[in-house]
Amino acid sequence: MIHLLDPASFRTVPWKNGGGTATDIAQRLGADGEPDWRVGTAAIDRDGPFSDYAGVTRTFTIIHGAGVTLDFAGEGVRPVPPDAPTVFAGAPAPYCRLVDGVPATAFNLLTRDGAARGTVRILAGGGAADTLAGADVIVLFAVAGDWRVTGASGDIALGAGSALLADAEAGLGVSGAAGGRLAAVAIHRV
């Protein structure tokens, strides 16, 4: 079943550490009321620490801006260029530095260890259609451009800033206009 997610229903919430805000696009709560997985965006307008998410795996992707570097105190510094999903443990939380001070927007997938695991791919429009299959849940977020999504439930058009959630679809076909970018999330229950 495909569910179109209305951007007006996305929730803006404060970061866990109070350092900014995030926009929740979709999430699935576990029996304890905490998210087994969560997908959203976060505006990063200055250098600062990330929130601590012990027991969570983060997939962090810069979708707007020049990129960031993440400093994992004592474990090294990782550059994160645009459109390059980067996976790391939610704790200890890294310190984030903007590249050249340019504000950025991040696309985030957070999965609770032992409950879910997931991947993020950034797809480019203008080429051959991609097929997405084999996940318990698929979340698509149109970063830029117009996209057509085809599944067993029919065709759906996604414009920039729009999203959809598909539960147990046999497969989704996606195609986008030249210059388009789509964040494709595949989530598997553990």
Question: Quick gist of this model?
Answer:
With 190 residues, this protein is mainly beta. The chain has no helices and 19 strands. It has two domains: 8-114, Jelly Rolls (Sandwich); 117-189, Jelly Rolls.
Distance between the termini: 21 Å
Low-confidence stretches: none
Sheet with most strands: 6 strands, antiparallel
How many structural domains?
Answer: 2
What is the tally of beta strands? 19
Count of individual helical segments = 0
Structural class: mainly beta
**Order of strands in the sheet with the most strands?**
2-3-4-11-6-9
SSE ordering: EEEEEEEEEEEEEEEEEEE
Rounded average pLDDT: 94
List keywords for this structure.
5-stranded antiparallel β-sheet; 6-stranded antiparallel β-sheet; 190 residues; HutD protein; mainly beta; RmlC_Cupin_sf; Jelly Rolls; RmlC-like_jellyroll; Uncharacterised_HutD/Ves
Describe this protein's structure.
It is a single chain. This protein has 190 residues and is mainly beta. The chain has two domains: 8-114, Sandwich (Jelly Rolls); 117-189, Sandwich (Jelly Rolls). 0% of the residues lie in helices and 59% in strands. It has no helices and 19 strands. Strands 2-3-4-11-6-9 form a six-stranded antiparallel sheet, with no helix packed on it. Strands 1-17-14-19-12 form a five-stranded antiparallel sheet, with no helix packed on it. The radius of gyration is 16 Å and the shape is globular. The mean pLDDT is 94.
